[in-house]
């Protein structure tokens, strides 16, 4: 990932701090504003996700933001890759982020990054709930 791509991700994150109540969180064009948390839904065994937004920043740049909570002892998510980049900001707990075969430990306050195409999974390896905020930035998929 180059500096320009990283700058785009940081700029995308700043969207979450400006007001535009009532904006849709669909896959349309995003506008500056506040995007309230959506309804929590089950995202696998022992895993809950809460969406904030999904949409386009530019015709070829998609942004998704959500929070995930993983219970202790929950099975790991499947190993996968995407066309987009993913950034995780740990809020609580301890997880293992496997990125391209290398296992990393993330705890509250840490930031994890997997660049587009990187094989990865996230697994709660602690004794408490783990929660993290995710920004996914890349082409439409």
From TrEMBL:
Leader sequence residues: none
- Enumerate the Pfam families for this protein: Cupin_2
- Record's superkingdom? Bacteria
Q: Where is the Cupin type-2 domain?
A: 68-134
User: What protein name does the entry list?
Assistant: Cupin domain-containing protein
Q: What is the lineage of its organism?
A: Bacteria, Pseudomonadati, Acidobacteriota, Terriglobia, Terriglobales
